[in-house]
Amino acid sequence: MDEFALIAQYFARAPRRAALGVGDDAALWPLDGQRALAITSDMLLQGRHFLPDTDPERLGHKALAVNLSDLAAMGARPCGYTLALALPEVNEAWLAAFARGLHRLADAHGCELVGGDTTRGPCTLALTAWGEVPTAEALRRDGGRAGDDLWVSGEVGLAALGLALQQGSPDSPLLASQATLDATTQARAIDAHETPVPRVALGLALLGVASAAMDISDGLSSDLLHLTRASGVGAQVWVDRLPGHAALAALPVAQRRALQLAGGDDYELLFAAPAQQRPRVAQLTQTLGLTLTRIGRLTPLPTVQWLDHAQQPLTEVPCGFNHFAPS
Ligand code: ADP
Ligand code: MG
């Protein structure tokens, strides 16, 4: 049983007071007739999501960033969060740096830490964050319509390259390519993995523009399936037009595609918008200083086709991360 089947079988229950329950980047809890709180929880575990020697200041940033990214994916404005922390021991230098990274990002978004829990145990960071959004305009995964354009922000695949460089497993084909990557590029890839930028301003700007949205955390190929299934549509994606750092273009095509389709941790927004919104989306690229790339479209046929530069479907599609994936 994989992660999503497990959630569906044991925990997904029909919402009663909630405006939106399990299955999106965040739940929606009504505040009044117009507004809702978007609520999300994301957990980082040492050994699973970060290495023991990860810089604690960067870890503080990332622990909150992955939660703010889910709020961004709903078009919500961050308000507050709680922090549940398990630590094997008290290391004050580590705690000071962790708190610095956490508070800096929180302050940049006006997001208040209002509670949590602290225990001894294997290093685990579990945050719950919430933000406000106009309920009817919230960017859900289920609003996509056949014919809508499919867009992605920033670059995809760089964080996965950063992770591969850090892990450096001896049999990784990337190690062969590592020699071709200069130190600046390697550092940028590691930055992309360790200090993702939650696209909060983009999420807010997409209210009334996007028909559906989500953030890319597990890898584009599996994340897109969540959006198409929720919307009851399929998609065509132009794989060779996916935006990526120049370092990716230098890699052999199979490696580049694996990083861009299966690699997670980009925390970019994947969104759908009707074709008549193209000028507004183009304008957002200017006003936000963030590249937005049209990578495909939603289709009535409920399958996802990954097309190469010759418009031929890929026969093998690298697949994203799934805790409890069948081996
Ligand atoms: P995301 O990657 O956007 O954080 P996930 O893929 O982790 O979302 O989770 C998918 C959906 O399942 C989300 O709506 C999440 O809130 C919900 N979910 C995950 N684990 C549980 C759980 N143990 N109980 C209830 N809902 C859960
Ligand atoms: Mg998400």
List keywords for this structure.
35% helix, binds magnesium ion, 60s Ribosomal Protein L30, Chain: A, Phosphoribosyl-aminoimidazole Synthetase, Chain A, domain 2, globular, alpha+beta, 327 residues, binds adenosine-5'-diphosphate, 11 strands
Helix-strand layout with pairing:
Blueprint: H1 3-10, E1 27-30, E2 35-45, H2 56-74, E3 77-87, H3 92-108, E4 112-120, E5 124-134, E6 149-153, H4 158-167, H5 173-178, H6 183-194, H7 200-205, E7 212-215, H8 220-231, E8 234-238, H9 246-249, H10 253-262, E9 269-273, H11 278-288, E10 292-299, E11 304-307
Parallel strand pairs: 3-4, 8-11
Antiparallel strand pairs: 1-2, 2-5, 3-5, 6-9, 6-10, 7-9, 8-10
This protein binds adenosine-5'-diphosphate (ADP) and magnesium ion.
Task: Describe it.
- The protein has 327 residues and is of the alpha+beta class.
- It has two domains: 3-137, PurM-like, N-terminal domain (60s Ribosomal Protein L30, Chain: A, 2-Layer Sandwich); 141-307, Phosphoribosyl-aminoimidazole Synthetase, Chain A, domain 2.
- It is 35% helix and 24% strand.
- It has eleven helices and eleven strands.
- The chain has a six-stranded mixed sheet with strand order 7-9-6-10-8-11, with helices on both faces.
- The chain is globular.
- The chain binds adenosine-5'-diphosphate (ADP) and magnesium ion.
